[in-house]
Amino acid sequence: MIAGIISRETRGGSENVMLKGGWGDHGNAFGLMQVDKRRHTPEGGWDSEQHLNQATGILVSSIEQIQVKFKSWSKEQQLKGGLAAYNMGIQNVIRESTAIPI
C-alpha cells in the first residue's frame, strides 16, 4: 500500500516534483508520499525514513478516523475511505464509493 501511494504521488521519486526540493502540488505537498503542509508539518528529507514514518502515521490515522466515522462500513470500505482521506482529508469523505478498486 505504501509503495502504491509513493508510485501514485511521485512515480516513486522520479516525478519532476523531486527536482523541486521534494515539493509538489503547487508547493503544498512534500516528499515521496506528498505530506500536505496545510494539514501537517513535513518531517525529514523528501526520501527519508523520517518522512516515510510520518506519512505512514498519517495514513494509519486516516484509516482509524474513517473506521470511527463510518462504523457500519466493511473493513474494505473503511480502507478505501482511509486511502481517500489520506489524499483529500477526513472531512471530504462523505460516502462509500465503488469507484476505488483494491
Total number of helices: 3
Rg: 14 Å
Structural class: mainly alpha
Number of strands: 3
Oligomer: single chain
- N-C termini distance: 10 Å
* N-to-C order of helices and strands: HEEEHH
Catalogue the unreliable spans: none
Strand order of the largest sheet: 1-2-3
Structural overview:
The chain has 3 helices and 3 strands. The chain has 102 residues and is mainly alpha-helical. A hairpin with a 4-residue loop joins strand 2 and strand 3. Helix 2 packs across helix 3.
Quick synopsis:
With 102 residues, the chain is mainly alpha-helical. It contains 3 helices and 3 strands; from the N terminus they run αβββαα. β2 and β3 form a beta hairpin.
Describe how the helices and strands are arranged:
Elements: H1 2-10, E1 23-24, E2 29-30, E3 35-36, H2 49-69, H3 75-88
Antiparallel strand pairs: 1-2, 2-3
Helix pairs in contact: 2-3
Keywords:
single chain; 102 residues; mainly alpha; three-stranded antiparallel β-sheet; elongated; Glyco_hydro_23; antimicrobial
